[in-house]
Amino acid sequence: MTDETNRRRFIRWTEERPVFSLTSFFAEANDPRGHQHMLSEILPLLPESGCEMVKEGLDLIIRWKQADPCPPPATPEIRKVESPVQTAIESFITAKTGKPWSDPATLDRIREAIIAQKDSYWKEGDERVIRYTTGYSIFAYLAYHFPVYYIQMRHLLRELMNDGLLPRRMAVLDVGSGPGTVTLALASLLNDMPGCRATIHAIEQAGEFIEAYKSIAISISEKNRGVTAPPPSATDITNPESPLPEGPFDLIVCANVLNEIHDPMIREETVMRLAGRLRENGTLLICEPADLANATALRDLSRRLKERGLPIYAPCNDIRGVPCLVERCWSFIALPEVAPTRLMNAVADSDEPFRFYNTDIKTAFAIHRRDGRKKISYRVPPGTKAERISRLSRHEEKKINIIASKISENIGDSGTFLYRICDGTGRREAYAALPAYHITEENAALRQAAYGSVLRFNRVLVRHHKKYDAYHLLLTKESSVELIEGELPEGETAPVREARQETKKAVKRRKEESAKAKGKKTARR
């Protein structure tokens, strides 16, 4: 065994492991020249590897030095998958099939696999079974799902960097990695940030996905000095006896994977076991599809994690300081559309292109931190003249002031802007409704505020929607909205659905409401 081999092994260990004991290193090296000789070789490597050696019990521990937060990327957000990543995907399909990726027969089989996946994807409960057991099921994922998930993950990771939650040297655990979406997204973000680097450990059960990860994600990360990505481990995360990577990790990501665990209790126990691998200041990011069933299940899970001692960082805000009791809690974000990849365009070149284009980005997410840090720390001060959502039943058809968080993008259209709002009280859902003809500068903050921001609503009309047993807070020209804490971001926003043409019945109702409001104003005078 040569001195060079020991040095290379030590550098590899420091790249892949945030913490390890010298005893374990010596055991693998098994150098007959003894521990003292190996120690003399590796000690000079500590500064360049960014590590330190400390005594722990009777052993010596090598660990990464604590690093400052990784700064936000200077480059603007992109809405497309970069060409090198697309090329890696195309090369993988070509190598796997033995034919050009754009071969008509290959594209036909990918179309069939996409249709089969979509049939399963929108089922709920035990009927929702998604399997990636064949090469073409992986190709379908790469053509249809990957572009959206990749841009979505870039956005979420970028937000964590914006908030200073990720250190310059980060250990990441990607649970249910698929073809390497998290690895590729981080490699893309860190590509122009020489001062930051990440070691990403992946867990993936599907053998076909592991093969794709090795071909696509590892090949890309090898060209990026900022990312180290060992091959994924095939671990059943639901089995309490299955070994997990040791960590500790600065970030654990569960992206579009927990919804495949149908039993809520097993899902909860799985996440708690994974969270045990976090650093004390580590972050857990969970994201799921934005449909009602999955978004609601995520909120339920997030509340239970909080009850078990894993505090919520975002998007939920404890602005009233009470346990959340909303019976059907859900929320999501929407982002501008992603540009189709070459593969997606080729697959969509058919008689029914709409079946194969997937460019809308909507996701539900939850971020938890072990240290209790919160994105928004605002609490409504005692004595504030603002009603709670739990008391809206007392004020039906009256105008009130209220403080709440904006927890959805616009789920209305260009005729009526509609947003989920929440203050953590009450059991019924509540929405802020802003008809387009009532838009003013005074209520513009509702549309402009970022997801999760805390807003004060002044003079909003309370209405109970009997069909959905929910409350609508109707904004009029008299209403105003103030940003209390959060952001008013600039730049591109998600597209707004065009309103349907207003019916005669709706016009009549609006005129009656307007006349009624004017009558009340005259009576007050």
Radius of gyration: 26 Å
Mean pLDDT: 89
Could you name the CATH class of the largest domain?
Answer: Alpha Beta
> CATH superfamily assignment of the largest domain?
Vaccinia Virus protein VP39
Q: How large is the count of helical segments? A: 14
Let me know the largest β-sheet: 8 strands, mixed
The tally of structural domains comes to 3
> Per CATH, what is the topology of the largest domain?
Rossmann fold
Distance between the termini: 95 Å
Structural class: alpha/beta
Describe the structure.
With 525 residues, this protein is of the alpha/beta class. The chain has three domains: 3-64, Orthogonal Bundle (Arc Repressor Mutant, subunit A), CATH 1.10.10; 83-316 and 326-369, Rossmann fold (3-Layer(aba) Sandwich), CATH 3.40.50; 389-508, OB fold (Dihydrolipoamide Acetyltransferase, E2P) (Beta Barrel), CATH 2.40.50. The chain has helices at 3-16, 22-29, 35-42, 46-49, 83-97, 104-121, 135-162, 181-190, 207-222, 264-275, 292-307, 342-348, 445-448, 504-524; strands spanning 19-21, 51-56, 59-64, 169-175, 197-203, 227-228, 249-255, 278-289, 312-314, 333-335, 361-369, 399-406, 416-422, 430-435, 454-465, 470-474, 480-485. The strands form three sheets. Strands 4, 5, 6, 7, 8, 9, 10 and 11 form an eight-stranded mixed β-sheet that branches. A five-stranded mixed beta barrel has the order 12-13-14-16-15. β4 (169-175), α8 (181-190) and β5 (197-203) form a beta-alpha-beta unit. It is globular, with a radius of gyration of 26 Å. The model has no long low-confidence stretch (mean pLDDT 89).
